[in-house]
Amino acid sequence: MEIANPSNTKDILRKHNLQLKKSLGQNFLIDNNILNKIVETADLTEEDTVIEIGPGIGSLTQKMAETGARVIAVELDDRLIPVLKESLNVYNNIEIVHGDALEVDFSELVDGSFKLVANLPYYITTPIIMRLLEEGFDVEKIVVMIQKEVGERMVASPGGKDYGILSIGVQYHSNPEIAFVVPPTVFIPQPKVESVVIDLKVKEEQNLEVVDEEFFFKVVKSAFHQRRKTIRNSLSKAPYMNLNRDLIDQALEEVGIDPRRRAEKLSIETFAQLSNALFNLTGGE
């Protein structure tokens, strides 16, 4: 049975008397073309292990299992566990895990590298992606459907309103690309916003020269604390760091940054140079 068929999806919901929870961001895909494009973007083969977060009733899970990949589906809503087990019982390459993706240890689920593919609930998009990128899991690729606005911030270049802390955080760890736009009409129920599928190719090696990663992100966070102010004022007034104004001026001059520029104008490479200069001047304090 093809789960993503609209009538089949409705039948499953009716059979199990399921009322979708807005609090869990439950919007189920009912378009096979979109599902096929997601699987194609993920480039799944039977050699892959893929973790899915929030499988719902299993429409994407089913499509991924058909590639032969090992699929581990992590679902928070305990009402959906028996639904998934029943709908997907013909596949021997699917494992259903009841758990919270914000807390589960992915390295315990997978011995080795994995891909993360999901139609993510919007409310956990950023924390889930940043957790996967920052906590050292052996993830090689992340392909997720997210709110279009958030996807545009992840891929944003310097100079625009979308560029900020999230852009730099994602681009520090990966090479992000919006694969395609998804209209609200392919979901039950329909969300009020457009979605995108974003493809994050996780960097095997860091190509930025950063003396201290934690200090780098403190500088970035401080620079965007009041994004309408100049970089000089933002750094001197941010609560995350206690930076001496003279040292800020010295670091800005050393890197060749006009102190009147705003943080949104600085590339990630320039932020790396600035954080290194400040670290060397302050000793990381």
Automatic annotation (TrEMBL):
GO terms for molecular function: 16S rRNA (adenine(1518)-N(6)/adenine(1519)-N(6))-dimethyltransferase activity; RNA binding. Coiled coil: none annotated. It comes from the Bacteria. Its main location: cytoplasm. Keywords: Cytoplasm, Methyltransferase, RNA-binding, rRNA processing, S-adenosyl-L-methionine, Transferase. It is found in: Cytoplasm. The gene is rsmA. It catalyses: adenosine(1518)/adenosine(1519) in 16S rRNA + 4 S-adenosyl-L-methionine = N(6)-dimethyladenosine(1518)/N(6)-dimethyladenosine(1519) in 16S rRNA + 4 S-adenosyl-L-homocysteine + 4 H(+). Specifically dimethylates two adjacent adenosines (A1518 and A1519) in the loop of a conserved hairpin near the 3'-end of 16S rRNA in the 30S particle. May play a critical role in biogenesis of 30S subunits. One of its GO terms (cellular component) is cytosol. Its EC number is 2.1.1.182. S-adenosyl-L-methionine binds at residues 27, 29, 54, 75, 100, 119. SUPFAM superfamilies: S-adenosyl-L-methionine-dependent methyltransferases. InterPro entries: KsgA/Erm, rRNA_Ade_diMease-like_C, rRNA_Ade_Mease_Trfase_CS, rRNA_Ade_methylase_Trfase_N, rRNA_adenine_dimethylase, SAM-dependent_MTases_sf. This is Ribosomal RNA small subunit methyltransferase A. HAMAP family: 16SrRNA_methyltr_A (MF_00607). Residues 34-204 form the Ribosomal RNA adenine methylase transferase N-terminal domain. Belongs to the class I-like SAM-binding methyltransferase superfamily. rRNA adenine N(6)-methyltransferase family. RsmA subfamily.
